[in-house]
Amino acid sequence: MTLNKEILKKLVSAIPMTHPDELGCGDCFEQINEFAEMELLGKSAEKAMPLVREHLNRCGECREEYQSLLKALKKLKIYS
Length: 80
Known about the structure:
The protein has 80 residues and is mainly alpha-helical.
């Protein structure tokens, strides 16, 4: 990937939104199953795991993975 002016602007504008305890993709991926299970059981996953929710709000790839996981678990009808 070549850094151009637009990419640099996006990167610089994202700096103020970061904080020291935020999750990276690897950490989010490790916790995504628990987050999905809690949500399907009607528990407040967002309150219990706010850093996972924040990451999913920011990261399209992890959000896609999470949505696919939810869809698969719903099809299995384990949490109905």
